[in-house]
Amino acid sequence: MTRRHRRPPPVPAKPIAAEAQPGPAWAWGQAVALLWYLGGFVALLVGAVLQVGPAAWMAAWQHRHGGSDSVTISFLPGFLLLLLPLLVARRMKRRPDRPFLCGIQDALWPGTRPPRTARSRDGQLARLRRTSRIMLALALGCVAVAGTLGALSMRPGEQRPGSPLPRLTMAELTAPDAILPGHAHVVDAVAQPDGAWVHDYTVRATRYRDTYIPLTAPGWRPGDPVTMLQMERRGLAGVPGPPEGSLSRGVPGWMVGAMRQSGMALIDDPPVLTREVLNGAVPEPDGIGLVLAVAFGGATGLTFGAIALGFHRAYRRLRARGSDG
């Protein structure tokens, strides 16, 4: 009788521990990363155009030490500061026991999270596909909003092109509750070119010069508060002409400080008459609104589009990796 050798029962393989599923800390890390990157980039663009925040501080430093400033140089320090945390997070090792950091890394570099189980892989594929679609929708939404705002900015407002310019006094324009029209002729303004402040700046390789001249009412004396400014661009500075043009508010704070340091007793938030040759008539709508809408909307839309493309490529790589296995 032959003796049968029984094989020992197979030892079950030790299951591979699945990576911890994303929790609240992971979700907060992902949200913070996206908000920091997208919100920070848009805020830097707005700050560079409106001359507020880090761009304004850098522009003031350049003007104080060099007499002029560059929009590009004013934008770069804030942009590098925005990238610094991302570069640090990129070099740090991914550790599942730090879900907040993992959320940041997964948001910025999708596809870095290794699948441990089929279930976690399916969940990651769904998350990548969903996020890619959301980012693509945001990109298209930015483009649509920018196009709408640009089209609205080209529509004529209450002042019809070709109609006579309203003739207003300094008192009417500098009243606390004054509502500034788009364009006007200031009937009693007296320019004070001896107290002018010059702003030299560079946009890419083109140099510009804006000259801010105090506008005063009759009876004004040196040392009295300056309640209104006339801004003349290169080509019009010093050229005789009527005080007419477009009206606005919002002189950057660092410029107000520089004007005061030069001896101008300027009030806060003065009206600014940007002098133009209008020949007494309201001009056609300016295209600057369209340019700004396209610039901001296009930049934001491209940013969302790039993120959508990154998530989509990560989705395709992860799906191809699973099919190969």
Number of strands: 9
Tell me the radius of gyration.
Answer: 30 Å
Structural class, by secondary structure, is alpha/beta
What percentage of the residues does DSSP assign to strands (E)?
A: 5-15%
Write down the secondary-structure element order.
HHEHHHEHEEEEEEHEH
Global morphology: elongated
The parts where pLDDT drops under 50 for at least 5 residues are: 11-21, 115-119
Structure description:
- Helices cover 49% and strands 14% of the residues.
- Strands 1, 2, 3, 4, 5, 6, 7, 8 and 9 form a nine-stranded mixed sheet that branches.
- The chain is built from eight helices and nine strands.
- The longest helix has 37 residues, at 288-324.
- The protein is elongated and about 115 Å long.
- It folds into two domains: 24-154 and 295-324, no CATH class; 167-284.
- It has helices at residues 24-50, 54-66, 71-91, 99-108, 118-153, 170-174, 253-261, 288-324, and strands spanning 68-70, 167-168, 183-186, 190-191, 197-203, 206-216, 228-233, 244-248, 272-275.
- It has 325 residues and is an alpha/beta fold.
Key structural traits:
single chain, 325 residues, alpha/beta, 2 domains, elongated
Outline of this structure?
49% of the residues lie in helices and 14% in strands.
Describe the SSE topology:
Elements: H1 24-50, H2 54-66, E1 68-70, H3 71-91, H4 99-108, H5 118-153, E2 167-168, H6 170-174, E3 183-186, E4 190-191, E5 197-203, E6 206-216, E7 228-233, E8 244-248, H7 253-261, E9 272-275, H8 288-324
Parallel strand pairs: 1-5, 2-3, 7-9
Antiparallel strand pairs: 3-8, 4-6, 5-6, 6-7, 8-9
Helix pairs in contact: 1-3, 1-4, 1-8, 2-3, 2-7, 5-8
